[in-house]
Specification:
The protein is α/β, with parallel strands linked by helices. The chain contains five helices and six strands. The strands form two sheets. The protein has a four-stranded parallel beta sheet with strand order 2-1-3-4, with helices on both faces. The chain has a two-stranded antiparallel sheet with strand order 5-6. Helix 1 crosses helix 5. The longest helix is centred in the middle third of the chain and has 20 residues. Bound molecules: riboflavin.
Length: 156
């Protein structure tokens, strides 16, 4: 596993049994986003996060993730948010608009609330590429998004 999050994998430097996480999940391509959710949820549980401290919020599509994340981040008790979505390139320029808006929207929520908000959004050319990253041969990006917010809470 490349990158900074490898150090979080499996255990954390801080206590997580008193931390609360929100996972915002886009319903578009739900076969993929459901698998990303499983990855994120299991990663948090494995790190010692209590079941009752993981809140799931569903939104229609990835474009709605920033607002869903904002609703979660504005709740005082929520320590970090994980956004999960899957945008697959179609035949029209929609892909670019959605990806741009979601990436920038999620970044704004990070900075506005000063809480980690992970961009666990697959932006792929094909469904196959998405499956490979949602529990397939390239791992599970939902799991990695969970490790990322934990890593950020450790840095604080
Ligand atoms: N949402 C996704 O999460 N993934 C997609 O691949 C996706 N493709 C879309 C393609 C088109 C042509 C449209 C109109 C919407 C798509 N959406 C997708 C939904 C989008 O995120 C949002 O829910 C809607 O645009 C309503 O705001």
């Amino acid at each position: 596993m490349a990158g900074i999050i490898s150090s979080v994998k499996g255990n954390s430097k801080i206590r997580l049994d008193n931390k609360r996480f929100a996972i915002v999940v886009a319903e578009w391509n739900e076969e993929i986003t459901g698998a990303l959710y499983e990855g994120a949820y299991q990663a948090l549980r494995q790190l010692g996060v209590k079941e009752k401290h993981i809140i799931r919020k569903d939104v229609p599509g990835s474009y709605e993730l920033p607002l869903g994340a904002q609703w979660m981040a504005e709740q005082k008790e929520v320590d970090a948010v994980i956004c999960l979505g899957c945008v697959i390139k179609g035949d029209t320029p929609h892909f670019d608009y959605i990806c741009q808006a979601v990436a920038q929207g999620i970044m704004k929520v990070n900075l506005r609330f000063g809480k980690p908000v992970a961009f666990g959004v697959l932006t792929t050319l094909t469904r196959q590429q998405a499956l490979e990253r949602a529990g397939g041969k390239l791992g599970n990006k939902g799991e990695e998004a969970a490790w990322t917010v934990v890593k950020m809470l450790e840095q604080r």
